Amino acid sequence: MGPAALSMLLLVSCGGGGASPVATPPDTTDPDPGNSGGSDFTDGVFQPFSNFEMLCVAPRTGIDSSTGTSFPDSPGTSTDENYWIRSWSNDLYLWYDQITDVDPQEHSTADYFDLMKTFDLTQTGSPVDRFHFTIPTDEFQALSQSGISVGYGANFAILASTPPRSVVVAYTEPNSPASSDPANLLRGARVLSVDGTDLVNADSSADVDSLNAGLFPEEAGETHQFTVADQGSEEPREITLTTVEMTMDPVQDVQIISTSSGEVGYLSFTDHIRPAEQKLIDAVTQLETAAITDLVLDLRYNGGGFLDIANELAFMIAGPAAADGRTFEELEFNDKHPVFNPVTGETLTPTLFYTSSIGFSAPAGEPLPSLNLSRVFVLTGPGTCSASESIINGLRGIDVEVIQIGSSTCGKPYGFYPFDNCGTTYFSIQFRGINAKNFGDYTDGFSPANIAQVEGVEIPGCYVADDFTHQLGDPEESRFAAALAYRLDGSCPATGGTGAGRASVSLPPLSAVDGLVPKSVWLQNRILGR
Questions:
Q1: Which end of the chain is more exposed for a tag (fewer CB within 10 A), N or C?
Q2: How many CB atoms lie within 10 A of CB 120?
Q3: Rg (CA), the chain
Q4: Which class is 253-416+430-500 in CATH?
Q5: What pLDDT digit, counting tens, does each position of 406-436 carry?
């Protein structure tokens, strides 16, 4: 996963703490766009986007591996590609009437897409649409279909992005360069330098670029040197990591904890990718066999992905008595499409909880196992987003109690279908999701009830900062321990409720922080297949 796949610059100098939301589109006029062809621009007049589909500056040739057929591209211009974006956005974008109509001949394609959205702000000053992005189609297919990505297998948490910076290992992928000899990185290891650049204090633009390049490499075969301090060790060590293409493991840790009041299951789930389907089925089958009485579902680093997988997991938690025949989520498109799904053509009806596998990685049509639980403990963080929030909202819609342990989630009740045009896959908000109780208004996320300042929809639970002094799945890790304690007497840790870790810019103790684990931007969303 390289910097191009990220939604923000992760490490910055003291003077560059990130861009502020703006209420008006930026001036991205290209003084020499070099465009030709396309149609004459008339403000407010739109042709069907199919008229411009796959008219490409650089047509692809050969066979599309995802379909087994030839690429449908034909020679075109950047203006043709921009006209496709313009008409497609006008038809499908949820807030199409808030897009300022702009002449497609005056901008590069990348800049033009950035203009095709609302620039309104929420009451708290955040952009209404924080989720507008593109990704190369081949990269999206590799990651979403098979979980293949480029990297070391180390998922870094950014605890402080400006000097004095703090970056630690949140978790690693099994059998990856990061988790194998000689690196053997574990959760909680601090990164002190990258390729000889002081990560904590370096402040020049060149140093920041070097740090980002090493932490978030773009291509396989890159080699970078790191100085790290392992959790519990005062002595730093030097390691060398080389990037490879690897398959992500979205379900790494399944445990059964014996307590005096019954067996408690723990399940870590990090990404809603297609391989997760079979892994989740296997995990729930294991927990079902153990006859667990409660489940701790760890979604703290799960930014989303395919909504269908969220639906399956929610059913497997609730079981048929609670979920069969009930609405998991209902999609609402813009007012041009009140009756039919504009992408699939199907009549808009609520999506029920799936009771059988859909065939992403498990055989299609097989009955799903179920835990038949009336409540679930969900461990959350600021990276818990989108499809992960749909699990919370969908279960709450059928009166399965969700107890939140951690910090506020990201707040994304919106989603989209991916559209490929000329080798770029476009993601533009197309629908809003509501649960069986017609609720979907959680644009500031969900917040545990005892947090000092409620940022989102308040639900039962405890604010607990992330704890990098223990491995994920360790019953003594602060969030897991808080869930186990809450199930006994409904109490929260005495240190809960501060929310201080979210804004920390010093080098905080690793048991009192709340960092962000950057991932490929499509994994921070809810996506429907076609």
A1: C
A2: 12
A3: 23
A4: alpha beta
A5: 999 988 899 888 999 999 999 999 999 999 9
